């Protein structure tokens, strides 16, 4: 499951994180760079697994989507949870005693939250299923964004009054 969903692609997100970290720290070799890279790849992989299910996609990177494989199906939902749980474990193993541990966790949580909000916007504007876009307006969308900016928790605009 990890090989199918994590490996492949251009690695741009993970590599750019490592390169940025190196530049900011002013060093060539970091003992934790592989951990950051792995977590970035796992984050992308688990979000892609869910995106493919929600968008009812057929292929990803020229292969059938993970959930489309006959032996996988909706087990892919649990596989996404497993991929996500590895991020927390890797960060804990490599950074728990570092003063910036919480900041690293916050960065991954923020990326995940913003991606989920983007996915929500993608889902409500899709042609699949019946949508009532009257439930969504700029005030409600701003409320979601304010919730994320202020406390890291967003609300579903369809349930916001």
Automatic annotation (TrEMBL):
Annotated GO MF terms: (2E,6E)-farnesyl diphosphate synthase activity; dimethylallyltranstransferase activity; metal ion binding
SUPFAM superfamilies referenced in this protein's UniProt entry, alphabetically: Terpenoid synthases
Cofactor: Mg(2+)
One annotated Gene Ontology cellular component of this protein: cytoplasm
Metal-binding as UniProt keyword: yes
Domain of life: Eukaryota
GO biological process terms on file: farnesyl diphosphate biosynthetic process
Key words of the record: Isoprene biosynthesis, Magnesium, Metal-binding, Transferase
Transmembrane segment boundaries: none
Keyword Transferase set for record: yes
InterPro entries (alphabetical): FPS1-like (IPR039702), Isoprenoid_synthase_dom_sf (IPR008949), Polyprenyl_synt (IPR000092), Polyprenyl_synt_CS (IPR033749)
Family: Belongs to the FPP/GGPP synthase family.
Classification via PANTHER family: FARNESYL PYROPHOSPHATE SYNTHASE, FARNESYL-PYROPHOSPHATE SYNTHETASE
Record's protein name: Uncharacterized protein
């Amino acid at each position: 499951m990890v090989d199918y969903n994590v490996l492949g692609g251009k690695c741009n997100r993970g590599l750019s994180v490592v390169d940025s970290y190196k530049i900011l720290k002013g060093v060539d070799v970091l003992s934790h760079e592989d951990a950051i890279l792995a977590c970035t790849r796992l984050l992308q992989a688990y979000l892609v697994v869910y995106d493919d299910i929600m968008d009812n996609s057929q292929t990803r990177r020229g292969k059938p989507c993970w959930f489309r494989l006959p032996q996988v199906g909706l087990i892919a939902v649990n596989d996404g949870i497993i991929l996500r749980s590895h991020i927390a474990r890797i960060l804990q193993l490599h950074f728990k005693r570092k003063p910036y541990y919480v900041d690293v966790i916050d960065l991954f949580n923020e990326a995940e939250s913003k991606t989920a909000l983007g996915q929500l916007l993608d889902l409500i504007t899709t042609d699949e299923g019946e949508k009532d876009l009257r439930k969504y307006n700029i005030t409600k969308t701003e409320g979601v964004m304010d919730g994320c900016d202020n406390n890291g928790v967003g609300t579903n605009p369809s349930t916001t009054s």
